[in-house]
Design a protein that fits this description.
single chain; 421 residues; alpha/beta; ten-stranded mixed β-sheet; four-stranded mixed β-sheet; 20 strands; 30% helix; 22% strand; binds guanosine-5'-diphosphate; binds 6-O-phosphoryl inosine monophosphate; binds magnesium ion
């Protein structure tokens, strides 16, 4: 099968970027299939940290083609900033391709995002305020502007039409403080810059590569619990983050999909609002945050932290058809005397592994099993056999509980810190 998939099994920030970068040199093409600059994928290469928001995490492998797929939403200003940052680090964009059918985030989309969050009061989604929701709304509402439109002679006309619609909408919200003129001028400069990028019919581009026998890696953003259909609605993002999103987001047939590599942390985090059954409000949660440096790569917000949640993972493994798991941030648990795993939920006095219809409405009490922590640093040789016995048995227990092979174990942010199992 030509297309393998990497996606997050929790609420995002599982370490997708690191794993994509590590595996990218086994592929000819890396393609982002959904989301936008709400994502922050952190890579640490030769001691240098890079954060990618829109550009696929294969960009550091020079011989590989990187595609921003049609399912992605693009903020021209952020993308140009990202390109300039990469250029400064010596990474050129000759191997970056953008699908014409990817939608554009306008400055006014960001204002609508902010206005709609402000109007929600305490019920805020905790959006990254990058304009993601309003842009996908215009896409499904059939009003959107697409990347391919930037080459059209009536681009400005189309832009103004959509902007006017947004300004009308914004009148419905309490006054927002924004400087549209300044933002718009940066946005238009960025559009000029982006006209130089390789702009392709993504579906033909990728399918032709598949026909030629090329291997493709599809990179997800966010996590499965943030999926618009299957996540903790309404506390979700606005795209399909799960495997089925690969087909819509790149224009490939389901029969092309091979391995689905699901990424989970050895614990769990979430940023923004919404339910999180295993969230810790105690010192253990603080420790996870501190040791795991759990602060958002896009917004800098502290991430909420908790123990790994088996019912939640069984659900996302099912929805995605996960064939193998990459377990990240195992090292963060090194100093814990005790490591916990939520194996069941107690809901209304009975035990279940099935997620309720609406996690927001249910009093869910996770039932934990405790394991003795290994309490030592991990060996740096990337040899599975050299892991502490207690770490090995923690991994073996997770494999049994999840019913999927843990084929990769990440033991640090750096590219080379990865154990193949
Ligand atoms: P993504 O959005 O899924 O790509 O993940 P992020 O980059 O937002 O968050 C993952 C964070 O954990 C980043 O700061 C990574 O550098 C870091 N990271 C990834 N894998 C590991 C690991 O195995 N151990 C540790 N300590 N940090 C890791
Ligand atoms: P990566 O790809 C973690 C969360 C936001 C908010 C909700 C909706 O780095 O894993 P949005 O801006 O999409 O309207 O916000 O989704 N969120 C993420 N959380 N990692 C991400 O991306 C996220 N992208 C969005 O915090 O709760
Ligand atoms: Mg992230």
């Amino acid at each position: 099968m030509a297309v393998d998939v990497i996606l997050g099994l929790q609420w995002g920030d599982e370490g997708k970027g690191k794993i994509v970068d590590y595996l990218a040199n086994k592929y000819d093409m890396v393609c982002r299939f959904q989301g936008g600059p709400n994502a922050g994928h952190t890579l640490v290469i030769d001691g240098k940290k890079h954060v990618l928001h829109t550009i696929p995490s294969g960009i550091f492998r020079r011989e590989i083609t990187n595609v921003i797929g049609n399912g992605v939403v693009i903020d021209p200003t952020t993308l140009v900033k990202e390109i300039n940052g990469l250029n400064d680090a010596g990474i050129l964009m000759s191997n970056l391709y953008v699908a014409k059918k990817a939608h554009l985030i306008l400055p006014t989309h960001r204002y609508i995002d902010a206005a709609s969050e402000a109007a929600k009061g305490k019920e805020k989604i905790g959006s990254t305020l990058k304009g993601i929701g309003p842009t996908y709304m215009d896409k499904t509402g059939r009003n959107g502007l697409r990347f391919g439109d930037i080459h059209s002679p009536n681009f400005l006309e189309k832009y103004n039409q959509l902007k006017e619609k947004h300004l009308g909408l914004l009148k419905l919200y309490p006054a927002l403080d924004f400087n549209l003129e300044e933002e718009e001028s940066k946005w238009m400069d960025s559009i000029n810059h982006l006209r130089k990028l390789n702009c392709v019919d993504g579906e033909y581009f990728i399918n032709n590569a598949i026909k030629e026998g090329k291997k493709v890696l599809a990179e997800g953003a966010q996590g499965s619990m943030l999926d618009i259909d299957f996540g903790t609605y309404p506390y979700v993002t606005s795209s399909n983050t799960v495997t089925s999103g690969v087909c819509n987001g790149l224009g490939i047939a389901p029969s092309n999909i091979g391995e689905v590599i699901g990424i989970t942390k050895a614990y769990c985090t979430r940023v923004g609002g919404g339910p999180f059954p295993t969230e810790l409000f105690n010192e253990e949660g603080e420790e996870l945050r501190k040791i795991g440096h759990e602060f958002g790569a896009t917004t800098g917000r502290p991430r909420r932290c908790g123990w790994i949640d088996i019912p939640q993972l069984l659900y996302t493994i099912m929805i995605n058809g996960v064939t193998q798991i990459a377990l990240t941030k195992l090292d963060v648990l090194n100093s814990f005397e005790e490591v916990k795993v939520a194996k069941q939920y107690a809901i209304d006095g009975s035990q279940t592994q099935q997620l309720p219809f609406d996690l927001c409405d249910e009093e869910v009490k996770p039932i934990y099993s405790s394991y003795k922590g290994w309490n030592e640093e991990l060996d740096s040789s990337n040899d599975f056999n050299k892991l502490p016995d207690l770490a090995k048995s923690y991994i073996a227990e997770l494999e049994i509980l999840l019913g999927v092979k843990i084929s990769m174990i990440s033991t640090g942010p750096e590219r080379e810190k990865l154990i193949l199992n």
